[in-house]
């Protein structure tokens, strides 16, 4: 009797589970896999139909499915089987522009997803070229700086805004004409086991999370022409909160994992665990609070940085907005890195731009506050890195007694290279307090005239078990305007 | 001096002209001629662009231009060169539905046109099949009466509403899935030298003119599965006014030139000159005021009706709406016709439906009013026709002394065949007054038991110069409940 009851309950549960997971084949809606028929309206009809019928998965089996902009709706998952490619139209006119242009939109939807081992291919190189053609004919108005159409004229692959319960898994994103995927003010977002192969044009971030809460980005492989995983805060009243970024492998011609540049609201409770960043032009990790927002309670643990232009770049500034930017309570542990002499992203598509003037390599770790927004409470523990060194005093030189020559530039676009020449090869810190360095092991490969560590206006900080390997090393730490620095 | 002034004036005038006649090649806008690229959004962009830039022609050169619904905008003409085909998508979802579905829409625009010797091809047969496919899958909701998708779910080729200064010239319209072209509440409309080839599905009217004013419909060739040129009045406060229909050649599996069925407002000041109607299943001319509207001041001159099921069908009724329908002052002159024994549209695509019961051939001229809406002041002058005759008394018979057996059917869908068996072969008139027949010459080819002319409740009418040829004829005219009938 009791047993029967359980079976009944079990059956009911199974039914409930399957009720929410009804599968619909794309072909059922007349969606054509040949790669030539533009399926925009059929795919949209399918999404609308499935959403209105209680939700389910729209399954794309092997084939190329050409489409322009579509809108994902509540309860619907696009499932791309291995061998299925959702192919972005080459025609710029086939894309809608909401706030931005995109291939797949979702606004104010919940319980949506994109899954499967298939590919979403934006054909971005050719879309961008077609946009350029339209601009040059005068048909599309565009500022057209540097011979590039502005981001607003190039479709990204995904633009989800104010959505809840989003699941993106397994998909390969390829060849966007702009940023790859932007999640804006979304909640309960899982991005897992995604591959991003996005080096077909400029500004191709891998993943952009804007003011999102409760996010997991895990097990992804990202190769992006612009920032790899980029957290932003566009809205001063909102923030990126409760985010886990773990087990990802990232290659970029900008920064591996970045907070900013837009940083109006904030970033808090973010864990960045066991990631690998390689062959990356700028920083493996760049945390930037420059638009009067805050960055706080960040944990970075287990980072492998291979062949990157910079390891860690922390920056406050005053670029946009009212009030003061803030950065505090950052914990960075268990990091290995090497900073090479050669350009780390050489030969990848859409390489990071060379600087106008050649200069000595930037320090491995840079903590760059501004006087009115001191960076505070940063722990760096068990960090090991090699730096190519080779700093040449004839090439350029910022004398240690003239650190004031290094400009503050609080309103400038932040980036590890923004100060150009710096007088340290290992660690450069300015306008910071309550730093705790422990178990730092750093090696300078080629002869370098610079100091390993320079502190300028750094207060109440500690260095413990510092191991430095540099030919002809005279002094480990140079201090200026600093107080309460202890070396243990 | 004076001469110089004129030259200057002329130059200014020329400049003015060219300003509004700028030509844009479709290819400029990335519109593809390969027949597989869906150009909807590019064509729309081109139209919007040209409209926003002072107007001009969007010129399509030889090729097949696939598209879904587009919206024509003020001052834009789509010009299809000979060999250019604007090809409707096979996908029902590529069409918008604005009340009705259409390939080319225009709402509230002025100075628009469709010109050139090219083709607009709706691929309607396949489109309709795809609609059926979606209906049978349950994806599109449809009444699906007689296994036909309702007209709203099948795209017509052109739907212009509340537009002014419309020119349609030269274009061939082919294979619509529904009506070919509907002009609704338009003003200053010129349709000239077009060709309609539309026999691939049901309900394929050739040209529908709804509540339009100042229209010229000339020099066109129409082959349509449904009514050829059809004037309608959907709005009780509006009317079809000041319309010239001349020099057209029409073939239809319904009526050649028809007013109605929807006749809520009215039809006034309409000239129908020198047209040919052939191989047409129903009436060469059908004027129907059945929805409380009026038909008045209509001139039909120079009509050649070859192999049609009926020559002239005039009908008042009370189907929809409040008030009384009205028909007054109709002048019909210089007409030749033949009414065959066989189905006139046999072998054409989407033939008119056979009647359930076989019956004798309807009279050539039917004037069928209702008691509360007596048809008045109709002149028939110089009308000459042959009728196949062959009426068989064993087959069916409405005795002349029981004319009341012929039903009034005021609310029934009007059509020359609505009364089924009638007791004359030449002319049947009921509930009419002020009819003037002169120079009527009619011949019954095969032996027929019926009277040539039957008048039932006809008042104050004259017959002059009546020539009737019929084997075994006993009398020319049978009168019932008539007064003031004058035979000269």
From TrEMBL, chain A:
GO terms for biological process: carbohydrate metabolic process. Coiled coil: none annotated. Belongs to the glycosyl hydrolase 28 family. This is Glycosyl hydrolase family 28. It comes from the Bacteria. Residues 1-21 form the signal peptide. The keyword Signal applies. One of its GO terms (molecular function) is polygalacturonase activity. Keywords: Glycosidase, Hydrolase, Signal. InterPro entries: GH28_Enzymes, Glyco_hydro_28, PbH1, Pectin_lyas_fold, Pectin_lyase_fold/virulence. The keyword Metal-binding does not apply.
TrEMBL record, chain B:
Residues 1-21 form the signal peptide. It comes from Pedobacter nutrimenti. InterPro entries: GH28_Enzymes, Glyco_hydro_28, PbH1, Pectin_lyas_fold, Pectin_lyase_fold/virulence. It comes from the Bacteria. Belongs to the glycosyl hydrolase 28 family. Keywords: Glycosidase, Hydrolase, Signal. One of its GO terms (molecular function) is polygalacturonase activity. The keyword Cell wall biogenesis/degradation does not apply. PANTHER family: PECTIN LYASE-RELATED, PLASMIN AND FIBRONECTIN-BINDING PROTEIN A. This is Glycosyl hydrolase family 28. SMART domains: PbH1 (SM00710). GO terms for biological process: carbohydrate metabolic process.
């Amino acid at each position: 009797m009791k047993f029967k009851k359980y079976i009944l309950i079990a059956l009911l549960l199974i039914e409930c589970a399957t009720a929410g997971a009804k599968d619909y084949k794309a072909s059922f809606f007349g969606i054509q896999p040949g790669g030539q028929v533009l399926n925009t309206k059929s795919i949209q009809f399918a999404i609308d139909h499935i959403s209105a019928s209680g939700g389910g998965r729209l399954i794309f089996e092997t084939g190329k499915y050409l489409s322009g902009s579509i809108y994902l709706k509540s309860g619907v998952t696009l499932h791309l089987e291995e061998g299925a490619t959702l192919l972005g139209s080459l025609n710029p006119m086939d894309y809608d522009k909401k706030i931005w242009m995109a291939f797949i939109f979702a606004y104010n939807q919940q319980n949506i997803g994109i899954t499967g081992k298939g590919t979403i291919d934006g054909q971005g190189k050719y879309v961008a070229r077609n946009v350029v053609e339209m601009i040059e004919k005068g048909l599309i108005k565009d500022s057209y700086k540097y011979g590039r159409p502005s981001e607003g004229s190039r479709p990204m692959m995904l633009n989800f805004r104010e959505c809840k319960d989003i699941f993106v898994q397994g998909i390969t994103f390829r060849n966007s004409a702009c940023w790859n995927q932007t999640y804006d003010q979304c909640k309960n977002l899982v991005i897992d086991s995604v591959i991003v192969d996005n080096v077909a044009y400029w500004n191709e971030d891998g993943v952009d999370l804007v003011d999102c809460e409760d996010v997991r980005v895990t097990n992804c492989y990202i190769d992006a022409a612009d920032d790899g995983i980029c957290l932003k805060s566009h809205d001063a009243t909102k923030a990126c909160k409760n985010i886990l970024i773990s087990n990802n492998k990232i290659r970029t011609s900008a920064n591996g994992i970045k907070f900013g540049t837009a940083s109006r609201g904030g970033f808090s409770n973010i864990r960045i665990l066991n990631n690998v960043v390689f062959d990356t032009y700028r920083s493996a990790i760049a945390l930037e609070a420059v638009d009067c927002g805050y960055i706080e309670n960040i944990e970075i643990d287990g980072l492998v940085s291979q062949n990157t232009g910079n390891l860690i770049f922390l920056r406050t500034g005053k670029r946009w907005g009212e009030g003061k930017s803030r950065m505090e309570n950052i914990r960075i542990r268990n990091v290995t890195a090497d900073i090479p002499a050669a350009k780390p992203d050489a030969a990848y598509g859409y390489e990071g731009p060379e600087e106008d003037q050649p200069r000595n390599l930037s320090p491995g770790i840079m903590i760059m506050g501004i006087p009115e927004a001191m960076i505070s409470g940063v722990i760096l523990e068990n960090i090991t890195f090699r730096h190519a060194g080779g700093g040449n005093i004839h090439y350029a030189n910022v004398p240690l007694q003239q650190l004031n020559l290094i400009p503050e530039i609080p309103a400038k676009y932040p980036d590890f290279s923004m100060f150009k020449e710096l007088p340290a090869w290992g660690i450069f810190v300015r306008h910071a307090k309550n730093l705790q360095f422990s178990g730092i092991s750093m090696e300078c490969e080629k002869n370098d005239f610079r100091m390993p560590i320079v502190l300028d206006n750094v207060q109440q900080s500690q260095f413990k078990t510092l191991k430095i390997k540099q030919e002809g090393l005279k002094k480990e730490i140079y201090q200026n305007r600093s107080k309460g620095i202890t070396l243990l | 001096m004076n001469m110089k002034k004129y030259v200057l004036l002329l130059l200014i005038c020329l400049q003015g002209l060219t300003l509004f006649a700028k030509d844009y090649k479709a290819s400029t806008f990335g519109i593809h001629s390969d027949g597989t690229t869906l150009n909807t959004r590019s064509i729309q962009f081109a139209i919007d662009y040209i409209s926003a830039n002072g107007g001009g022609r969007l010129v399509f050169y030889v090729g097949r231009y696939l598209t879904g619904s587009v919206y024509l905008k003020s001052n834009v003409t789509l010009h299809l060169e000979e060999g250019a085909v604007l090809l409707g998508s096979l996908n029902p979802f590529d069409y918008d539905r604005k009340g009705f579905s259409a390939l080319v829409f225009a709402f509230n625009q002025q100075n628009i046109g469709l010109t050139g010797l090219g083709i607009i091809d709706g691929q309607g047969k396949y489109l309709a099949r795809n609609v059926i496919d979606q209906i049978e899958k349950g994806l599109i909701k449809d009444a699906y009466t007689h296994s036909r998708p309702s007209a709203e779910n099948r795209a017509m080729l052109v739907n212009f509403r509340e537009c002014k200064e419309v020119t349609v010239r030269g274009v061939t319209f082919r294979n619509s899935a529904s009506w070919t072209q509907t002009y609704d509440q338009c003003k200053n409309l010129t349709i000239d030298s077009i060709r309609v080839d539309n026999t691939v599905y049901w309900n394929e009217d050739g040209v529908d003119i709804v509540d339009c004013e100042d229209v010229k419909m000339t020099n066109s060739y129409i082959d349509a599965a449904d009514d050829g040129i059809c004037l309608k009045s959907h709005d009780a406060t509006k009317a079809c006014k000041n319309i010239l229909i001349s020099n057209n050649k029409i073939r239809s599996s319904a009526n050649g030139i028809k007013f109605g069925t929807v006749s809520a407002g009215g039809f006034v000041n309409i000239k129908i000159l020198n047209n040919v109607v052939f191989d047409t299943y129903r009436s060469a001319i059908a004027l129907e005021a059945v929805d409380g509207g009026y038909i008045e001041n209509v001139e039909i001159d120079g009509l050649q009706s070859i192999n049609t099921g009926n020559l002239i069908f005039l009908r008042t009724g009370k189907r929809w709406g409040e008030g009384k329908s009205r028909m007054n002052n109709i002048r019909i002159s210089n007409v030749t016709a033949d009414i065959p024994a066989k189905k006139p549209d046999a072998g054409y695509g989407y033939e008119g439906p056979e009647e359930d019961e076989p019956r004798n051939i309807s009279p050539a001229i039917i004037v069928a009013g209702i008691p509360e809406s007596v048809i008045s002041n109709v002149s028939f002058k110089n009308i000459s026709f042959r009728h196949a005759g062959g009426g068989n008394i064993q087959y069916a018979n409405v005795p002349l002394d029981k004319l009341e057996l012929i039903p009034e059917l005021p609310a029934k869908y009007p059509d020359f065949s609505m009364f089924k068996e009638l007791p004359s072969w030449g002319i049947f008139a009921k509930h009419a007054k002020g009819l003037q027949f002169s120079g009527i010459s009619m011949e019954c080819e095969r032996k027929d038991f019926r009277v040539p002319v039957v008048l039932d409740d006809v008042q104050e009418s004259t017959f002059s110069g009546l020539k009737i040829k019929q084997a075994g004829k006993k009398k020319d005219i049978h009168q019932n409940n008539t007064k003031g009938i004058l035979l000269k």
